[in-house]
Amino acid sequence: MAAYLSLAILVSLLAAAAASDHGDYSVSSHPHSGGGGGEKKLVVKVEGMVYRQSCAHRNTWRLDGAGPLPGAKVTVTCRDRKNRVMAWRTAKADRSGYFLADFGEGPPAAAYLKGDPAKACFVRLLASPDRKCDDLTTVNHGIAGALLRHEGKGSPAQGYVIYAAGPLAFRPRKCAPTRRY
Question: What confidence tens digit (pLDDT) does each residue in 78-98 have?
Fold first, then answer.
């Protein structure tokens, strides 16, 4: 599992390096964002939950008995219409496990990959503050990138959209054996 953690960190660092090649990380100042003309800019926010998976459901997608993981970090990456990283944010979960990544005012929806921030952005697990529970899981594709869904909070016509991801989870590094030998 350490290999997955190293891979996730490497991918996040590469995304950061790619974004830093273009200056500021914000969507609105990216030179390739495609926003311009008289198109209405869009405020994009991404929310979700990060949990501590119980040992009883290790190696599954089940979150029965899971608890919130305060201080867990995730990274939200968005791609432009040419599939380049155009913005990213790191968000930290509060004491209930809730995170919110706010991209602020950015380009119009058409500047995002496939013209839709829900298809252009994804969330990855980044770091757990609990050393006893810091193994990444694949729950809702937390390693590869959790897809976003629109739950009716705002719309491009209103100038803002709040998308949801997850729930995501870290799991304990060590669990007691579940069967006798």
Answer: 999 999 999 999 999 999 999
> What are 128-157's pLDDT values in tens digits?
999 999 999 999 999 999 999 998 998 888
Look up the pTM and report it: 0.74
**Total domains in the fold of the chain:** 1
Give the rounded percent of residues in the chain with a pLDDT score beyond 90: 54
Within a domain: residue 115? yes
User: Does residue 169 come out as left (phi exceeding 0), alpha (psi in the -120 to 50 range) or beta?
Assistant: beta
Alpha carbon separation from 4 to 9, 36, 129, 155, 164 (Å, rounded): 9, 39, 17, 35, 24
- Structural domain that includes position 88: 2-32+39-171
> Token pair for residue 71?
């201080």
Q: Tokens 């608890």 appear where?
A: 67
How many secondary structure helices (H) and strands (E) does the chain include? 2, 10
Residue identified by tokens 């991404």 is: 46
For residue 128, the domain's CATH number is 2.60.40
CA–CA distances in Å: residue 8 to residues 3, 13, 42, 134, 137: 9, 9, 28, 12, 11
User: Which DSSP state fits 164?
Assistant: E
Q: Is residue 15 part of a domain?
A: yes
Is residue 63 within 8 A of residue 52, CB to CB? The reply is no
